[in-house]
Amino acid sequence: MYLTKLYVQDFRIFTQNTWDFDPGVNWLVAPNGSGKSSILEAISLLSTTKSWRADKTAEMIRFDQQLARVYALRDDGLRLGITLTPGVLDGRKTSVKHYQLDQARKRAADFLGHLYTVCFRPEDLNLITGSSSRRRTYLDTVLLQTSPPFALAHKNYAAANLRRTKTLQDIRDQNLPPESLNFWDEQVLMHGQIIQEYRQKLIDFINEDGPDHKYQLVYQPNLITSERLADHRAAELALGHPLVGPHKDDWHILTILNHRPQTDLANFGSRGQQRLAVLFLLLAQLHYLHRTSGHTPLLLLDDIFSELDELASQQVLSLLPQQQTFVTTTAQNMVQLDTCQKIITL
Predict the structure, then answer these.
(1) Which DSSP state fits 56?
(2) What is the rounded CA–CA span in Å between residue 86 and residue 96?
């Protein structure tokens, strides 16, 4: 599975643009601010239905426009499309995203699973030492592409947790009775347990069947059970926000020597060790998506070579020909002509 063409309309800085791709390595070479990352964002959007850059859908729509469109063609002729809106068109409320396979409208759940991607950006080099939110996103980005039950639970949990937070605040302010929380407790419990089950399975897969047994991921779920919800209710009411659930999960990574866990890389690993471990995590995503979907995922590399040392750069370069790959760079001299299939300048 690979992309042959991408079309965008009023997406980010682009008005109407079309790019043709080769099945091998596609280098996007241009100065900063030219829209290289936006092309990768558009491809990733068609894969996960989410942006790794925008907090709100409207941020992806070109200034002063009502909507944006992103379409792509797979090598088998299937057309994937997403139309983005700010939630209002011609004064009427509408969904912020509309999905299409060929000419047929689809739900997000039915749209997912038709394109698989792994994206690697400079900020991912801080994955191990950065925020727990970023580490949760590492897991969820893979699971959203491969597991419809997870995708549905992820969406429903986020909505229920938001409503539960508002209910906690209303009860605290004496605008609602305490029993108003019961329904939302049931909702976050049901969907939260599904999320944690799938996250645990993914981490188990990486540890048992991953590309390298020099590392071990340790899941730290903030377990959501009816007992823990009851135990934390008084504190949550006092604070006005939830304290229990997968939105507070985390994980950390250890080095393995002689089959025994050794160094917690977040606290004791060198910068070089941490970066090599991040490359392991990139490989783990590629490996998992290939094993579970039966397709080789696309690899999206957004201006990462400027942040890697020579050893890490060589490891990444060795990955390029193994799948359709998109690499952004500002430096023409970074293009590896022996592996290059196509150079796209913006």
Answers:
(1) S
(2) 6
Provide the CATH number for the domain around residue 42. Answer: 3.40.50.300
pLDDT digits (tens, 9 = 90+) for 288-309: 999 998 999 999 999 888 777 7
In a domain, 49, yes or no: yes
Q: Which residues make beta-bridge pairs with 215?
A: 255
Given CA atoms 180, 186, 189, 194 in this order, what sign does their dihedral have?
negative
Establish if 157 belongs to a structural domain.
no
Please check whether residue 339 lies inside any domain of the structure. Answer: yes
Q: Given pLDDT bands bounded at 50, 70 and 90, which one contains residue 341?
A: confident
Extract long-range pairs of 60-68: CB within 8 Å, 24+ residues apart: 60/11, 60/12, 60/84, 61/10, 61/11, 61/85, 61/86, 62/10, 62/11, 62/12, 62/13, 62/14, 62/15, 65/10, 66/90, 67/10, 68/8, 68/9, 68/10, 68/11, 68/12
Amino acid at residue number 213: H
The overall pTM is greater than 0.85: yes
264 within some domain = no
Please tell me the total count of domains within the chain: 1
